[in-house]
Amino acid sequence: MTRRGWLLFAAMAVIWGIPYLLIKIAVGELTPVTLVFLRTAVGAALLLPIAAARGGLRPLLPYWRWVLAYTIVEVSLPWFLLADAERRLSSSLTGLLVAAVPLIGAVVTWLTRGDERLDIRRVGGLVVGLAGVGALVGLDVSFRDLGAVGEVALVAVGYATGPIIVARRLPGVPSIGVVAASLVVTALAYAPLASRQLPSTVPSPRVLLAVAVLAVVCTALAFLLFFALIGEVGPVRATVITYFNPAVALLLGVTLLREPFTLGAVIGFSLILVGSLLATRRASGPAAGEASSTSRSSASGEPGTPGRLRRSRG
Predict the structure, then answer these.
(1) Based on the structure, what is the number of domains in the chain?
(2) Which helix (H) or strand (E) holds 226?
């Protein structure tokens, strides 16, 4: 890998590991609806002109139903559910729970594709990964927070489903166009509710900074860098960032927010990581990359990357 490739890789491993920290800070003063609106509105304002200049919007028109479906399962609902869940869960625990996305992606792929074979290795990976989720929930979650865990579980299902939608229903569609359109649609959908939930006073500088970084760095800039990473190192190596994002979320939550570093986090993340590798790794075959690429973005808290880029990711 070139020096530029390593720099892009390191940047993405961090950038898509910090949204959980920023969301936790922001929901201290903003409602989940307001946060989603601000994040998508700013992100759309930055990416939409770029997508339009690159001719990435017009090709979406024949596929608008699937673009809408992708938007719902990857952006509109997950980002709200994450924000709502983090009002009760720590940012580090949320990031670790979302790390189960590759496991869910493997199951969804198997259930929806008749030519997929669930062999002993993959079954073992699913069992190990689920044991990791069980360790996280059993050791680190109180009974009153199970509802928030359920919200994160829905996020994981959405993140696992979105890339499958774009792989099968949006082949060849420009990636940046789908991402920009998803942000625009979500911002418009949340605008009426957000206008009634804006805080009566200006949020603290800490919250404003969190929202700005979340929208500009973790959304708009992140996708541009990820596109560059794909072009530099290829799809297979690029998806490895998936396994670093939850570790970054854990490190930031513990060091900056003084969240507890627990035995459940160590055991749970280790088992989820091993299980994901076993369940999604493929030796050969035309569908080799599908389940593993559902893990990308999703372990990061960011929407899956569609269209041409999704194909290149494998």
Answers:
(1) 1
(2) helix 222-233
For helices 19-26 and 91-98, give the axis angle rounded to 10 degrees: 140
> Does this model's pTM top 0.90?
no
- Domain of residue 257 covers 3-302
Are 303 and 36 in contact by the 8 Å Cβ rule? The answer is no
Burial of 68 (0-12, 13-18, 19+ CB in 10 A): middle
Q: Which of 188, 179, 175, 156 is closest to 301 using CA atoms? A: 156
Residue 314: inside a domain, yes or no? no
Average pLDDT per consecutive 10 residues, the chain (314 residues; last block may be shorter)? 83 90 96 97 96 94 95 95 95 89 81 67 82 81 83 91 84 89 97 94 96 95 83 64 82 91 88 81 50 44 49 32
**Residue 309 domain flag:** no
Whether the CB-CB separation of 108 and 279 falls below 8 Å is answered with no
